[in-house]
């Protein structure tokens, strides 16, 4: 039998390091986003909407890597908060177009300091930040490309 290449020790697991970092970073966002009345999921949805609205619900899900069943309740909560409107597209009644409201556009101004506040919490130099972000994107691309081939 071939000796395994990787240890089963928790301290050696990349997945655990990623999980711990993700949990701590998301927790650091919580008080900042609470002051804006947003959850982390709503915040990342708003980031997409601030860049691309008007877009469809499907396009939002694609940008966030979320399925329709996850995006729909998220959008409904943003609509209930008065940040977006949903309307059926005349050319395709099954497709919902999302538009920012005035309150949704104004929230962008209030949220402008969030990235710098989180960057301060992370305490990374610009080069470290860029390297980590590039490495995580590369990891995500690799896993996405290889996970369909694995059970």
UniProtKB/TrEMBL annotation:
SUPFAM superfamilies: Winged helix' DNA-binding domain. Gene3D superfamilies: Winged helix-like DNA-binding domain superfamily/Winged helix DNA-binding domain. It is found in: Cytoplasm. CDD domains: HTH_ARSR. Pfam families: MarR. It comes from the Bacteria. Residues 11-141 form the HTH marR-type domain. Its main location: cytoplasm. InterPro entries: ArsR-like_HTH, HTH_MarR-typ, MarR/SlyA-like, WH-like_DNA-bd_sf, WH_DNA-bd_sf. PANTHER family: ORGANIC HYDROPEROXIDE RESISTANCE TRANSCRIPTIONAL REGULATOR, TRANSCRIPTIONAL REGULATOR, MARR FAMILY. This is Transcriptional regulator. It comes from Nocardioides luteus.
